[in-house]
Amino acid sequence: MNQLRPFDLDAYTRRARHGPCFVCAIADGDPEYRIDHEFIYEDADVLVFLNRYPSLRGYTLVCPRRHVERVVDDLSDTEYLQLQRWVYRVGRAVEQVVPTERLYILSLGSQQGNRHVHWHVAPLPPGVAYADQQLAALRLGGQILAMPDEEMATLATAIRDRLLEELWRGRAHEI
Which site from 10, 13, 37, 167 is most exposed, i.e. has the minimal number of CB atoms within 10 Å? Predict the structure, then answer.
């Protein structure tokens, strides 16, 4: 089990509200943003990476590459369903790598900060007390998991390997 480390919520809020769109900065290759994230998968339409501020081990973000601010109004039915396929695939891969009692899928953000639509795929580990379960993924108060860079890289690789296995298997069935 990882230890917790302090988290500067005020600095995070300032960056989210007054900095550039973090997803667009990552998509554009901005080194200040890109270097801080462990990538799992990306293509022309989607970005998948570990949460930089994890409250749970394996907490992953799934984002449309293009700037989208409203979950349903800014996406066509087809685009929305394609992104949900990615959320599903990523969720399956995360559950295969990280012990998970329940997988939470959330779309968070605000027009006041972190506007770019992104889904949080948050695996609740077994053993969390019932009273704490539904808030465990959202716990950002003053602490986050203290995961060394090497552990984050290893975790991202394991999830990526599972995701790519699933993608390959799915394509093999289509042939």
Answer: 10
- Token reading at 116: 């770019």
pLDDT digits (tens, 9 = 90+) for 30-88: 988 887 789 999 999 999 999 999 989 999 999 999 999 999 999 999 999 999 999 99
Helix (H, G, I), strand (E, B) or coil at 51: coil
Q: Which helix (H) or strand (E) holds 145?
A: strand 143-145
Q: Residue 98 in contact with residue 144, Cβ under 8 Å?
A: no
Per-residue pLDDT tens for 138-166?
Answer: 776 678 999 999 999 999 999 999 999 98
CA–CA separation, 113 vs 17, rounded Å?
Answer: 4
Level-2 CATH architecture, domain 4-169: 2-Layer Sandwich (3.30)
Location of structure tokens 């109004």 = 73
